[in-house]
Design brief:
alpha/beta, eight-stranded mixed sheet, 19 strands, FAD-dep_OxRdtase, FAD/NAD-bd_sf
């Protein structure tokens, strides 16, 4: 197959579209041998923690095996919402945790969104932030019941900004006949994730943080006084506090955390430039979009409104991004047939991390702080959890977040390698098919 055959445009690259304007930052500077706080992972969670610590007079050290922001923090779709992300958890959420506790989680999610907007303004983060709203499509008639419960949960926080959209009005949101209705969220936004993580890193450095790339975390030992000896590929670091912020890239050197995370590759494509008029023809409100399927889609216009960016679970194994691009192109054009002739310029993937309870987690274990398992909704969540982790490091205790009261579960014999994902993927495909969802043109 030639480079330009099939859905591929001339110059097609297997690289995040976002990196054209803001590639991850190399920070190859000398590694300090001591730190008040050592943070493993230079993504959103680690940088947000370092920024909050710096604003309170504590200079953190952030290390990453790759360039700062290289992981999912700069590869995601750049879609933001508050408590709306809680709707992706299992249907027995209230039964499992109790109505009062779930209300606390929802209220915190909504407040986290407001805090995020305040952070962007306060730090003057250059990230093309736009409050555009979100549309979630119902892939089957019964999915509308789930969206109704989500809207009620969100509106119970006092926001009153979630609305159901009947099937006959779906075309006001997206040019498709595939959805049976949907939910509109007004408290939702978009940004350029690579620009956001770059600006967040710059803000953390202004606050006194030291960011170092090319440093692999190889283990830690807790000393009698409660401090840590952190082993790295460039020598040991003595740190008063330690935080893990590696999420979908957590390695064997952090076995307790790794056993609680299910890393899953998520795939995205960017279309060639088709112009704002044509983008508006398929996405009239220029929102961020998702749906209710097990194998969900998420998509949006590019920040300049000249392309469509489309993502999903194109594979449940660690597949190559050229093949996944062809799969996502089929998904996209099946959903929005008006894009059938549009070709692709970029394809990429990034690891998201799920927890077994499908909830995000922040807390402390054996003195090690962590913020992990964003379950595919990490920009606001991990920014908020960075602030929570910093407050805990400074002695804030569990009162700083309702999420700190969640146990971080694992399963017997699980070691962090998700061997079961192909089985889960097949089950998800079957579930979607039983609901009536079929992708035309599947090969």
């Amino acid at each position: 197959m030639s480079e330009t055959s099939g859905p591929f445009a001339p110059g097609f690259v297997e690289r995040p579209y976002w990196w054209e304007a803001a590639p991850p930052t190399l920070a190859e500077i000398p590694l300090p041998d001591t730190a008040e706080v050592a943070i493993i992972g230079g993504g959103i969670a680690g940088l947000a923690t370092a920024l909050e610590l710096g604003r309170n007079g504590i200079k953190a050290l952030v290390i990453d095996r790759e360039p700062i922001g290289w992981g999912a923090s700069s590869r995601n779709g750049g879609a933001l919402s508050g408590a709306g992300s809680l709707g992706k958890v299992r249907s027995d959420l209230v039964e499992a945790f109790g109505a009062k506790f779930v209300s606390e989680l929802a209220a915190e999610g909504e407040q986290a969104f407001e805090d995020f907007e305040a952070l962007v303004q306060r730090e003057q983060l250059d990230c093309q932030y736009v409050r555009c709203g979100r549309f979630v499509g119902a892939h089957a008639p019964k999915a509308m019941e789930g969206l109704k419960r989500r809207a009620e949960m969100i509106n119970a926080t006092g926001s009153e900004e979630a609305f159901l959209v009947p099937r006959e009005r779906v075309h006001e949101e997206i040019a498709t006949d595939r959805y049976y209705g949907g939910m509109q969220l007004l408290r939702a936004a978009s940004l350029d994730p690579a620009k956001y993580v770059r600006s967040l890193a710059q803000a953390a450095e202004r606050a006194g943080a030291t960011l170092v790339s090319g440093v692999e975390f190889r283990g830690q030992h807790r000393k009698a006084d409660g401090s840590f000896l952190v082993e790295t590929s460039r020598g040991p670091i003595r740190a008063r506090h330690l935080m893990m912020a590696t999420n979908g890239y957590t390695g064997a050197a952090a076995p307790w955390h790794r056993r609680r995370l299910i890393p899953v590759a998520s795939y995205m494509i960017a279309t060639e430039q088709i112009g704002e008029e044509r983008v508006r023809a398929v996405l009239p409100k220029l929102r961020v979009y998702g749906d209710t399927k097990k194998i969900l889609y998420y998509f949006r216009p590019s920040p300049d409104y000249t392309r469509v960016l489309f993502g999903g679970r194109a594979s449940f194994v660690d597949g190559d991004t050229r093949r996944s691009a062809a799969t996502l192109h089929r998904f996209m054009t099946d959903l929005m047939p008006d894009l059938a002739d549009v070709r692709l310029t970029h394809s990429w993937k990034g690891n998201v991390a799920f927890a077994f309870d499908m909830m995000p987690h922040v807390g402390v274990h054996d003195g090690i702080h962590y913020a992990m398992a964003c379950n595919g909704s990490g920009v606001v969540t991990m920014t908020h959890f960075g602030r929570v982790a910093a407050q805990q490091i400074m002695g804030g205790g569990n009162s700083v977040s309702a999420f700190t009261r969640l146990k971080f579960p694992t399963k017997p014999f699980y070691n962090g390698t998700p061997w079961f994902m192909p089985i889960v993927g097949t089950a998800y495909q079957l579930r979607d098919r039983l609901d009536g969802w079929h992708v035309k043109g599947r090969r």
